[in-house]
Amino acid sequence: MNQQAASAEQVLLEVLRLEGLARRAENSETLAFTMVNDSQTLFGFRHAALIINGRVRAATGVSVPDPHSPFVAFIERAGRQLLAAGKADSAGEVSAEWLDQQTRNDWLALSAPQAFWLPLKDRQQRPIGGLWFARDAGWQSAERQLLTQLGETYSHAWQALEPRGVWRVGLPKKRLLIIVAVAVCALFIPVRQSVLAPAEVVPLNGRIITAPLDGVVADVLVKPNQQIKKDQLLLRFDSTTLKAQADVAERALGVAEAELRSGSQRAFQDTESKARLDLLTAQMEQKKSELMYANELLSRTEVRAARDGIAVFADDDSLRGRPVKTGERLMELADPQQAALKVELDVGDAIRLPDKATVALFPDSDPLSRYEAVLERSAYEATLTPQGTLSYRLDAHFIDAAPRIGLRGTAKVYGQYTPLGIYLFRRPVAALRKALGV
After folding, report:
1. Which of 75, 259, 317, 410 has the fewest beta carbons under 10 Å from its own?
2. Where is the signal peptide (predicted)?
3. Backbone angles phi, psi at 122, to 5 degrees
């Protein structure tokens, strides 16, 4: 026993004090500090280090051990070698024969010559870590017994504050090589490629309603998804200008007809008037054509349904009062029993798709439902989506009953079989190739 312990009674009191500090520790950090610092007066060690599951958690005189310091690296390496040699579960002085040459050299340079290993165990007496005590003098039998008694107290207190698993040695190189080989072989397991893309249920063979003339939509007489009958009035254009043009054309036709009648009467007596009959007749025909054209445009101001179905468009308020050009899409008439799936596959997710590839739709409104479909067409050229991204359009038809038209969701498109490694690292490899320019 060191010279600071005056009597056996004082030693016993000091041991009881240390046990009390361990039991009253509020957290594992406080307990670790007690282990490596408070017993220094009793045992006179130069330094101590606490290892838990292979990592140094505390050291004498250090608030937070630096994991990159040479001393910490030496202690962790020595602990692993003690565990590998089967010496980590018993208390005793450390023999240099248990350590390799590099660890011995570090021991001479970084620690004291006499080291004592005090294991910490769980309730099944399996090692979870240990304490490395080092000093210049040797360890007496009474000190070894006191340390063993303290080790049991420290183990119990640590398990109460921070339960830990069993401290195990690292995998042997042979076993590690086997695991790596199995992982590499697993990368060649064929798996089915699949990608996710936004999708929408669209009408199949729908009739698109376009603007028949340049003008302003005055009124929309149907609602979105409303059932429509054939020849039902859908929308009406503003006809003010067209009515005025028709009236002007009608009056111009009347003037031309009056001039023709007057010229015909004069032609019996006037040779010059007879020569103008052809011109007056042509002018009348021109005015008649202008009137017919004006009436034709006026008749187009009312758009009617060419077939039965439902009206598919976003909002009637967005159409009402909107200026449109001839041929501009207004709405679509569709059969609610006939629907297809439109998928917008991002160019970055494009994979090789087989003929009649399987497609599964998961609606946003009901993500647990699944609708099966079969791919029918895949566009060769990418187009710009309303979101500003380039994507390929895929069209698929549903195998069973189709969901409601206009439903949006996520489509999972299944491709061909490919090795697992390509499936997992396809995107990273593509990004690396772009970065390196190869």
Report:
1. 317
2. none
3. -85, -170
Which residues, in sequence order, are CB contacts of 322 under 8 Å at separation 6+? 216, 217
Instruction: Count Cβ atoms below 10 Å from residue 121 Cβ, excluding itself.
Output: 22
In 3-state terms, what secondary structure has residue 92?
strand
Phi, psi of 133 (to 5 degrees): -105, 135
DSSP at 62: B
Going along the chain from its start, the domains and CATH numbers come out as: 8-161 (3.30.450.40), 207-330 (no CATH), 336-436 (2.40.30.170)
Listing DSSP states for 343-361 in one string gives: EEEEGGG-----TT-EEEE
Mean pLDDT of all residues in 342-355: 86
Q: Give residue-wise pLDDT tens across range 29-74.
A: 999 999 999 988 888 999 999 999 889 999 998 888 998 899 999 9
Q: What is the pLDDT of residues 412-428, one digit of tens each?
A: 999 888 888 888 887 78
Instruction: Look at the alpha carbons of 433, 436, 437, 438 in this order and tell me if their dihedral is positive or negative.
Output: negative
The pLDDT score that the predictor gives to residue 271 is: 64
Positive or negative torsion for Cα 381, 357, 355, 374: negative
11/260 Cα distance (integer angstroms): 140
